[in-house]
């Protein structure tokens, strides 16, 4: 049984859409993430807003990637944090965020002034689920707490002469607290939504050799916390990046959900001493077709070792 790392019991309120009190640890930050999937164009996208209150910086990131290793667009710049900044109304470096309905709906836009822009409305399909609700709590190296929500994107992405409609399901999250990526030996973060409105968010974090399971299953009516999961991953010939996954997920209601995913686009994101293998995939949730995101985190040295590993026999 995984140890209870970082248990936090307060329930989410509308105020959790806003900024949280912080300590003096320079690793403390607050972040918002939106991930979208464009299977017909073989594209994946990440919109990320990072606040570092002790450094007094705010950093929007826009990443669009195509197929395997082709970064179609990247914007990632830090700026001085405005004296007054709240997360229901943000304007910084061409990035705009407007909260429309707490814990449900927001509008996001970005324009770099050089031909790349996006705008979308995100509307949750279920109430946000925070990792404090899972039996092992939110792992403290990951954050003090974080909430996840599947939802629908409606908008448009423009990359110079290319225009892509954003219309489909994806994921957002909001997290806050001290981040200690070095303490995380590995994690798997998976979000999937079926075309008929089922959703899964699963995080398996390995810390001190123990695995903590977080996330939820949404059956179209209610959200149930995940208790544990068995995951099998097939890797690319490089030995390090994920290509397919199969998972059996047990939730608090005693139900088992089967998840299958096949990656169609992936990029590698260095972060501190780790590497994120960020991928979008076609999914089946109990045979219902859909799409989603598969993100694996590895220590940087280990990730590179996997790519160089030659032991005569099958890679793991």
What does this structure look like?
- The strands form 2 sheets. Strands 1, 2, 3, 4, 5, 6, 7, 8, 9, 10, 11 and 12 form a 12-stranded antiparallel β-sheet that branches. Strands 13-14-15-16-17-18-19-20 form an 8-stranded antiparallel β-barrel.
- It has a single domain (about 30-310), classed as AttH-like fold, CATH 2.40.370.
- With about 325 residues, the protein is an all-beta fold.
- The protein has 1 helix and 20 strands.
- The chain is about 5% helix and about 60% strand.
- The protein has one helix at about 300-310; strands spanning about 30-40, 45-50, 55-65, 70-75, 80, 90, 95-100, 105-110, 115-125, 130, 145-160, 160-180, 185-195, 200-205, 210-220, 225-235, 240-250, 255-270, 275-285, 290-300.
- It starts with about 25 loop residues before the first strand and ends in an 8-residue tail after the last helix.
- Mean pLDDT is about 95; it is low at about 1-10 and about 310-315.
**CATH homologous superfamily label:** AttH-like domain
Task: Please state the CA-atom Rg, rounded to the nearest Å.
Answer: 19 Å
- The rounded distance between the terminal residues' Cα atoms is 24 Å
- The best one-word shape is globular
